[in-house]
Specification:
Elements lengths: L2 H29 L20 H16 L12 H24 L3 H17 L6 E2 L5 E2 L2 H21 L6 H24 L5 H21 L8 H19 L5 H4 L5 H18 L1 H16 L12 H8 L3 H21 L5 H34 L8 H4 L3 H5 L6 H4 L1
Antiparallel strand pairs: 1-2
Helix pairs in contact: 1-2, 1-7, 2-3, 2-7, 2-8, 3-4, 3-8, 4-5, 5-8, 5-11, 6-7, 6-8, 6-10, 6-13, 7-8, 10-13, 13-14
Length: 407
């Protein structure tokens, strides 16, 4: 029986358990009003329960429990420390996230908890021990530990930063992890090794948890995953990427025809994790830069994330989420394409996809400019009501009644 059937089994377990518990948590939270008030930076307008991350965590636990009973996946559990370290780190992160969702912890406490969780995972052996640069280069234990903790904390916060729209994190995670699972699964056959089962299993379980949670989280959301869920997604994505990155011998992956064919497969283990995380990492970088320039903490909250900007541009809630899906799909699938396609073809597809995504992203601005031009060119006394609100010249006129509408 193909190995992928067993991965599909644990994915299904994670999805079913997560969905069932999410429904229970939603009903209990609604009945007993276990939800916070709407904050100024929030996009939603009604109080919504945000303990969905708890359901996702137990879905992950159930899936790993089932996987441990499948003989074909037994190799993952020959090093139980890594699995226990992963689940222990997940427990710490979920506990920190739930506490923050309930009591709104300060950023230093949350960061300390994230570092402890990342340190536990690295201590149990899930860490960046090698880098595929100029061959397989072994780094020192101290550098390995530092890079691992930094990478895990970075990814967790990047995922948490984009958790601002219904279905955004869950959908992006499903797309990104599906691409990453395909990569790790095919890598096993290409490199003729079983080493990557931990990465494949972790990714498959995470896909299931997100699939099970998405029905209650898609717009309009009945339940949010909260910090507990977003940090859990980030932790598992980082763990699966680290389990692969740096563990690849470029000589086993390279096609010898030319240098480009050698270079790209060798660096896909480094590039692909960044590709599947392109949206959250970009938002994280922009947010940190913006806040530091303003003299604020990089973890202080604001309403200037990428998803807020898409809404301000005129996109609907659903359109903004689909745009994030599109960017993630184009970049992640495009990078993966270098394993199967000629360089020029793969690059052409990526460029074409990025152009389409860019057009869709800026379309509301173009439409607004067109309507504004039409409004300003309309003769006085003949204005169309639907266009009047776009006429900035009239809106700027002193005493114009439309000025109060456009303020």
């Amino acid at each position: 029986m193909p190995r992928i059937v067993f991965y599909l089994l644990v994915t299904t377990v994670a999805a079913v358990v997560t969905y069932a518990l999410a429904v229970v948590i939603w009903k209990l939270s609604t009945k007993y009003r276990l939800y916070p008030k709407v904050r100024e930076r929030d996009v939603h307008t009604r109080p919504t329960p945000r303990l969905g991350g708890v359901a996702m965590f137990f879905g992950v636990l159930a899936a790993f429990a089932v996987a441990s009973r499948i003989p074909q996946l037994s190799l993952v559990f020959t090093e139980p420390g890594k699995v226990l370290g992963l689940l222990g780190a997940a427990l710490i992160i979920v506990a920190i996230g739930v506490a923050d969702d309930i009591w709104d912890l300060d950023w230093m406490t949350k960061l300390a908890g994230q570092i402890v969780a990342a340190g536990l995972l690295a201590w149990q052996g899930v860490q960046l021990s090698t880098l595929p640069i100029g061959g397989v280069t072994i780094v020192s234990p101290y550098i390995s530990l530092g890079l691992t903790v930094f990478a895990i904390v970075l990814v967790m916060n990047a995922i948490n930063f984009i958790d601002g729209l219904d279905g955004l994190v869950a959908g992006v995670a499903i797309i990104a992890n599906t691409v990453f699972f395909i990569y790790t699964y095919l890598l096993q056959a290409q490199a003729q090794t079983e080493y990557f089962n931990l990465a494949s299993l972790t990714t498959a379980v995470l896909i299931g948890a997100c699939v099970g949670f998405l029905p209650l989280n898609f717009h309009p959301a009945k339940l949010f995953m909260g910090d507990a869920g977003a940090l859990l997604v980030g932790l598992l994505m980082a763990a699966s990427a680290i389990s692969v990155t740096g563990q690849v011998d470029p000589g086993q992956l390279a096609r010898p025809e030319n240098y480009t064919a050698y270079f790209l497969p060798a660096f896909i283990p480094i590039v692909l994790p960044f590709a599947v995380l392109i949206v959250p990492l970009l938002d994280f970088a922009l947010a940190v830069t913006r806040r530091l320039r303003a003299g604020k903490s990089p973890f202080s909250a604001d309403r200037k994330h990428l998803h807020h900007r898409l809404l301000d541009m005129g996109h609907t809630h659903l359109h903004a989420v689909l745009i994030f899906y599109g960017w993630t799909l184009v970049v992640s699938v495009g990078v993966l394409g270098y394993m199967f396609m000629p360089f020029i073809l793969a690059t052409t597809l990526i460029v074409a996809g990025l152009i389409v995504c860019t057009i869709v992203t800026v379309l509301p601005l173009t439409r607004a400019k067109t309507l504004e031009a039409a409004a300003e060119s309309t003769d006085v006394g003949q204005e169309v009501p639907e266009l009047a609100r776009f006429d900035r010249l009239d809106a700027a006129s002193v005493g114009a009644p439309k000025s109060t509408e456009t303020a």
